[in-house]
Specification:
By secondary structure, the chain is an alpha/beta fold. It folds into two domains: 10-213, Vaccinia Virus protein VP39 (Rossmann fold, 3-Layer(aba) Sandwich), CATH 3.40.50.150; 225-293, rRNA adenine dimethylase, C-terminal domain (Helicase, Ruva Protein, domain 3), CATH 1.10.8. The chain is 39% helix and 17% strand. The chain is built from twelve helices and nine strands. Helix 2 packs across helix 3 and helix 6 (136-145) packs parallel to helix 8. The longest helix is centred in the C-terminal third of the chain and has 13 residues, at 255-267. The termini are far apart. Bound molecules: S-adenosylmethionine.
Length: 297
């Protein structure tokens, strides 16, 4: 491969995979992007500039990494598959602002990694990645529960998961993942990507989601963030059942508890018969806080 060749096209991708005897590993969610236009659009959607520190999760053979290296100040790419490390050493040899780390991103200490790897760790930190589909939600939850204040998170995922992240109340895609994201970030689908843009082609289409820090503060704050997330997950455990039925599993079924729960629901004017997917984030927070005041949570 010549240094001027762009990695992310079909011919070059096949030739690199052949040269290194690499077979995409399903277990690591490996689907390599082979469309240069999509690579550019991802970097544009993330608004990467030379002032940015970028963390890429799963660089693969380096197609997106190369475009990030051209646009960003510095790139740190975390790849779990050690077989890809020699490939990345070669494909990214021309870029001295890229560091590849062979690690499982779910086990990484992100604040430490940022402090150790970036020359200017105080510059904006952006995450840009074509995520392994099998762990999209755990990776997002990990990023959001870390103390790092991400400037933005621009990630490719299965289209259906992207729709869950950006869903409105009352739709079938709306659920605990939507609310966990909404609690901290504003999510927007930038564009969709066909399954034919990858080698090998996955069974699903994809979308790029851009997450940015919320501009508007929440109208009500929960008394405890972790409790809120657990409470919401509990309320969605049986989405076809009413809120009342779910609340009994989350809080309890004793007559005394039920009487207190009824009082709280009346006070904040939420019908016990409503389905959980009808409630807004603010309503879940009000419910949690009111149950806490009644010492039910
Ligand atoms: N960025 C490349 C591209 O766009 O062509 C590859 C994307 S591929 C969908 C996902 C990448 O994430 C693979 O390289 C895979 O080995 C890597 N990966 C999977 N699980 C990971 C984990 N827990 N930590 C870090 N990387 C992981």
């Amino acid at each position: 491969m010549s240094e001027s060749t762009q990695i992310g096209n079909r011919k070059e991708t096949r030739s690199i995979l052949n040269e290194y005897g690499i077979h995409a590993k399903k277990g690591f969610g490996q689907n390599f992007l082979t469309d240069p236009e999509i690579l550019h659009r991802i970097v544009d959607a993330a608004e990467v500039t030379s002032e940015d520190n970028v963390i890429e999760i799963g660089p693969g053979i380096g197609a997106l990494t190369e475009q990030l290296a051209k646009a960003a100040g510095q790139v740190v790419a975390v790849e779990i598959d050690q077989d890809l490390i020699p490939v990345l050493e070669k494909t990214l040899a021309a870029y001295d602002n890229v560091t590849v780390i062979n690690q499982d991103v779910l086990k990484a200490n992100l604040p430490e990694l940022i402090k150790q790897q970036f020359t200017n760790p105080d510059k904006p930190i952006k995450v840009v990645a074509n995520l392994p589909y099998y762990i999209t939600s755990p990776i997002l939850m990990n990023l959001l529960s870390s103390p790092v204040r991400w400037n933005s998170i621009t990630v490719m995922m299965q289209k259906e998961v992207a729709q869950r992240l950006t869903a409105n109340p009352g739709t079938k895609q709306y659920g605990s993942l939507t609310l966990a994201i909404e609690y901290q970030m504003e999510a927007e689908i930038a564009f969709n990507v066909s399954r034919h843009s990858f080698i090998p082609a996955p069974n699903v289409d994809s979308a790029i989601v851009v997450l940015k820090q919320r501009q508007e503060p929440l109208s009500v704050e929960p008394f405890d963030k972790q409790k809120l997330m657990g409470f919401i997950r509990g309320c969605f455990a049986h989405r076809r059942k009413s809120l009342w039925n779910n609340l009994q599993s989350v809080i309890g079924k004793d007559a005394d508890i039920k009487a207190k729960m009824t009082k709280v629901l009346e006070q904040i004017e939420i019908s016990p018969q409503v389905r959980p997917e009808k409630l807004t984030l603010a309503q879940f927070i009000s419910l949690l806080n009111a149950f806490h005041q009644e010492k039910l949570i």
